[in-house]
């Protein structure tokens, strides 16, 4: 793969470590103010993300991901530094935490759809599967290292220093993006409509990755070769399966206000996208709060140290990264729909272990199971979503994918946080396990997912 991709991935991985360190530190400090406030901080991130994600995907399709990423990363540097100064200057951390969370959610809404397209733009089509697997692995390694680093810095120097470390990681990513920008300029080519369409640097048609690779939706205006199931991508906006530049021109000619809604229309009208996105939403609503909300609350209720809580969160990431490595080396298992459902069942069993374990060591072992199940789900449901997505709507469907993970969190984080404060975090974990197990069993019985898996 090109050196430019590895440079981008290295800068992105470093910024993700900073993000995860900051996320853990914010969750730990917020949990000290009670479960309700901890849920409110997470809501402050998710609410603007939900409201603006579809707009962020449409903007990425319209102006391109490079300017969006550069601006959003620069804004994150300012946000992190401002957060550090605010935490240093006040004794009550609640207002700085809420304002920082709001800013992160707004920036994420624009940054996430854009950064998801970069592997497609920086590597030739033949290397796309490896590039996506490497990106997923880098993200999981950041989830492993970030909370541990955040807990150590938080215990030694406080939240403000964690925020400064986060700002430094984004400064490195900003430097990498500016250094790679000259390579991106040759990708801009005029379309027949007089607009500018972005092409892969190789100048070749983009392709969807083959079966057996863990991928996420990416942005492309080009015709896809046969997908996971052996079918061609759906017709472009011009009604043809070819004509990449015509599809891009039509996409850019449509009103900007209609583009976000068009992504929702495509996702809901396609039966496979509808089933997999609904399943992903349920999984996100009851699995993501386990590490972001319930583990810090569980640790505080059991009087564990922040380092112990960080180890549990890191164990979850390690389990997910182990699965990602296995998929990178050996490929995904056949029948990905059924395997993804089985992954939810494994994750549910791990959550039960978290709730029942009385020591940090046992909780870390259970966290490995949670991470392994989550990794199996992510690495097998991803190709189903990618293969079913029309080539002209990849950025917008990616926005919908992030949306269906963020929207349930607006409800579940507040409800679960309130219940954890009123009862026990372990009781709430048992409830999450029941929801995940039910979702896995329903998915196993779904004829749509089974038919797509065959």
TrEMBL record:
Protein localization: Cell membrane
Principal location listed in the UniProt entry: membrane
One matching Pfam family: MFS_1
GO cellular component, one term: plasma membrane
Annotated membrane topology: Multi-pass membrane protein
GO molecular function: transmembrane transporter activity
Signal peptide extent: none
Keywords annotated in UniProt: Cell membrane, Membrane, Transmembrane, Transmembrane helix
InterPro entries, per database record: MFS, MFS_trans_sf
Transmembrane segments: 6-30, 37-60, 66-88, 95-112, 152-181, 275-299, 311-329, 336-356, 362-388, 400-422, 428-449
Protein name: MFS transporter
